[in-house]
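The instructor's notes for this session suggest beginning with a concrete chain rather than abstract definitions. Hand out the sequence below and ask the class to guess, before any prediction is shown, which regions might be ordered.
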Amino acid sequence: MRVALAVIAAALAIALYASDRLYDAAHQAWSDARRGAHRALGWPLPGTPDLSRLRERLGEKGLALGAPIFIRIFKQSRELELWMRAGESFVLFATYPICTYSGGLGPKLRQGDLQSPEGFYTAGPDAMNPNSRFRRSFNLGYPNLYDASHGRTGDFLMVHGACVSIGCYAMTDPVIDELWTIITAAFARGQARFAVHAFPFRMEDWRMRMHAGGPWADFWADLKQGYDSFERTRTPPAISVCRGRYVVRPGAPGRDAAALNAVCTS
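After discussion, reveal the predicted structure:
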């Protein structure tokens, strides 16, 4: 009886795993088809907020230009979240569709691999390029201290406009314009750096189980610590590097981003 129950439980687990993967694949295919149709017709991508109402949208959430910001990127769903600080914590202001990125799930490893990076990054005023040939851009800061500790190479990995990518995260031009307005206002009001957390997907437990045993499982487990910390506190966590691994500590209330540092030597 126990053996039979164990077999049934295993079969159910496999079925649930398979159904999750099929649902995810079907949802992604449908999303890609909708995005392609909107681009072909010259429409804003599905999910684009009303960019003509920036100040009204800010006011509806009790926010104002100049508040400190925090960004999260999700490759699989092609979404960029912009969070803004309200008091001691951050609130979600907008979710923008990413027009395109290059490569697949997993980190960037080397110059020329056409892979968009994943990891914990920060950007300061020197990362901003108002004269980018891709409308406007800001540099993610790849390779960071973690990437360098693993010998990863590459440069000029950006978030920019123009909807073309050779390793960057590309937005539509109207979206990068709104992002630019909000980011430069935060710098003008004194934010020294803002954090950008680039994830392969939303790191719910069931998604992590789907990728358990894969080549990036350990790396993604480290990223999940940062994802979970922010989900709990709505404050960007403090990120450092120790012996080639990300180290995540809860952020202090009211704290903004700081550049990564090494907390121990490898």
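Then share the key points. The radius of gyration is 19 Å. Residues 38 and 44 are 7 Å apart (CA to CA).
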